Amino acid sequence: MARQDRSTGEPGRVPLLEVRDVTKSFGAVAAVAGVSFPLYAGETHALVGENGAGKSTIVKMLAGVHRPDAGTLLLDGEPVTFASPADAKAAGIAVIYQEPTLFPDLSVAENIVMGRHPRRAFGRIAHPAVQAEARRLFARLGVRIDPARPARGLSIADQQIVEIAKALSADARVLIMDEPTAALSLVEVERLFSVVRTLRDEGAAIMFISHRFEEITELCGRVTILRDGRQVSTDPAGDLTVDDMVRRMVGRDLDALFPKQDVEPGAVVLEVENLSRAGVFRDISFSVRAGEIVAFAGLVGSGRSEVVQAVFGVDERDTGTVRLNGKRIRPRSPRAAMAAGMALVPEDRRQQGLVMDLSIERNVTLPRSRALARLGLLSGAGERREARHWTERLRTRYRRLTDAVGTLSGGNQQKVVLAKWLATAPRVLIVDEPTRGIDVGTKAEVHRLMSELAAEGVAVVMVSSELPEVLGMADRVLVMREGRIVAELPRAEATEDSVMFAAMGQGAAA
């Protein structure tokens, strides 16, 4: 194992921002206890750990959302206190959170310059200058997004790009990136990394949070590992292997990230024929058998999520039929899909999967409210019993089931979405980016659960941007490009090369 270095700095070198012996508790729960690490100018520093390890709490302290109960934050070697997010921003700290936080009814450009609008005489907003600033930033990022369009309706990938542009527009000296690549394609990730390297070379201090180890080893010079709110180690990235990081994060060896069981598929459960929607996808036909995991792969924007949402009835379709166990499902009716035995875990858990102000237990039991009711009244004890069963099965971390689901970490929110739909005992489970933003230990748990459900006869449809996940879990891979299925690959023939060649139009056999 690599050496453990709990020092907070290097001789003769002052960190741009330093966390020193910081502690933060919520009630009786210590979210962070005695954590110390430096952020140097011109360096990218990774902060890693399982969901619930304390990463988000540290981010919120640096962003001025929370104040430490003990310990010190230092900026340029001097103690500093952030009473609000505005204080942190004024100090040159910008945070790109894991979940986009845009104003949906404002334009993309207005979101980018929010709070810093260029103005004309008499205080009027200089809209041409706002548009020009957005275009300049998008050119720097190498992306094409219309600055004048409303933020509502943007894909997760485009929302993340707008968040990045917003942070860059503030000329921050410290850039904190919380899972910025979770919803980006490989091309977009490379483009982002190019921007990060430019900022680093210009002297910015960057804290990078990611569950993708290949990103950490490629981009970061130093790694701090947390477990259960405590600091395990801070080391140069070059001194750590992936096995070292996994072992320190979870406190044990991770035997299998993809525990795929061999299952003999049964009869066809889901049939999709000639599904089309003008300008989005066309001629989509596929089937899924009981006990089979079928994965949709492809670049962001290829139409994968739109297809599964149309199958479930969330989005409309122009043509095509969907059958479950031979019975046709009425289009544009999620209720009909649910009644037939279909469940959809959406990509955007905050906007589509959860009611953030409701309790954990209420979110878990929402689809089964009628089944749990007695004489028209919802049983609180029954609701709590059902929620406890599924949150425990998914090893969800929370204080009380009555807490708002919005108080949970991103990974635990994802577990609640999974629990919510698994409680309906579906015949067909559609999971869109099932492990986006989830730590390595939780990924293994989700994969194990998917494999167990398939072994029990559930037909699983998975959309994933992570090729290792696709290759590790799928019995068949359907590759999409520009709204069409361009290749169907059995497990034995699916490789990174074959999938990416097909996704990029380089000629894989259909």
UniProtKB/TrEMBL annotation:
GO MF: ATP binding; ATP hydrolysis activity
**Pfam families assigned:** ABC_tran (PF00005)
Report the principal subcellular site.
membrane
User: What cellular component terms from Gene Ontology apply here?
Assistant: plasma membrane
User: Which segment of the chain is annotated as a signal peptide?
Assistant: none
Subcellular location(s) per record = Cell membrane
Concerning PROSITE patterns, the annotation shows: ABC_TRANSPORTER_1, ABC_TRANSPORTER_2
Indicate the segments forming the ABC transporter domain, all copies.
17-253, 263-507
Looking up InterPro entries in the UniProt record yields: AAA+_ATPase, ABC_carbohydrate_import_ATPase, ABC_transporter-like_ATP-bd, ABC_transporter-like_CS, P-loop_NTPase
Task: Determine if Membrane is one of this entry's keywords.
Answer: yes
Regarding the membrane, this protein is recorded as: Peripheral membrane protein
Q: Which UniProt keywords apply?
A: ATP-binding, Cell membrane, Membrane, Nucleotide-binding, Repeat, Sugar transport, Translocase, Transport
Domain of life assignment: Bacteria
Q: What is this protein called?
A: D-xylose ABC transporter ATP-binding protein
